[in-house]
Design goal:
The longest helix is centred in the middle third of the chain and has 18 residues, at 108-125. With 202 residues, this protein is of the alpha+beta class. The protein starts with a strand and ends with a strand. It is built from five helices and eleven strands, in the order βββαββαβαββαββαβ. It has helices at 33-46, 79-88, 108-125, 147-157, 182-190; strands spanning 4-8, 12-18, 21-29, 52-59, 65-69, 94-101, 129-133, 135-143, 160-165, 170-178, 196-200.
Length: 202
């Protein structure tokens, strides 16, 4: 599987109206379930006067972590249509929320499916779709005497430093590295004596 994936750059919004009901839609880039839970809770608080706050999300390069929530709408009429719009665009690490204000006229099953689908589509159509690389985080621990050698590798390989702790004895640097480059980088660093490498689950 490629370690390149498609997601959105930043929050985007959309809207759909049908028979008095208003569907406000929001597409957001996300990284994990904890972040998603907080966002949904915030939306539920912000739109407490809405009839429904429905959503769907997809996480991970393999897109195995996903959920579709109807939030009180008839089963399969809200979350699934939203999820379908995410999958149609081959996106991941994306959360789409659709907030419904009921207009007094029932839309029926097919009407709801169409409305939630159109609302989600509108938000995603306003989003900037980008490609990102799956990254691993490596923590390198080493003696201060090895600092110049480590920094030379970082500069030559054009690596992204996430966190660094440098003192006169023991030092550590955390790097964000493209998944396909991890094995080769570990081999290069292991040539420097006294270094320890830990692959972090980030």
């Amino acid at each position: 599987m490629s370690d390149i994936y498609r997601t959105i750059a930043s929050r985007a919004e959309g809207m759909y109206k049908d028979k008095g009901s208003k569907f406000l839609s929001f597409a957001l880039p996300v990284e994990n379930v904890e972040e998603i839970k907080k966002i949904i809770k915030d939306f539920q608080h912000q739109y407490h006067d809405a009839r429904h706050v429905c959503y769907a999300y997809v996480l991970g390069n393999e897109k195995k972590d996903w959920r579709a929530n109807d939030a009180g709408e008839p089963s399969g009429t809200a979350g699934r249509p939203i999820l379908r719009q995410i999958n149609t665009r081959n996106l991941t690490n994306v959360l789409v929320i659709v907030v419904r204000y009921f207009g007094g006229i029932l839309l029926g099953t097919s009407g709801l499916i169409h409305a939630y689908s159109e609302a989600a589509s509108d938000a995603l159509n306003h989003a900037e779709i980008i490609e990102k690389t799956v990254q691993c985080h490596l923590k390198i621990s080493f003696d201060f005497l090895q600092l110049n050698s480590i920094m030379k590798i970082i500069k030559e390989q054009k690596l992204q430093v996430v966190v660094q702790e440098i003192d006169n004895e023991k030092c550590s640097i955390e790097l964000a590295v493209a998944q396909h480059e991890v094995s080769d980088l570990i081999k290069i660093i292991q040539n420097i004596s006294g270094t320890e490498i830990e692959v972090l689950n980030r």
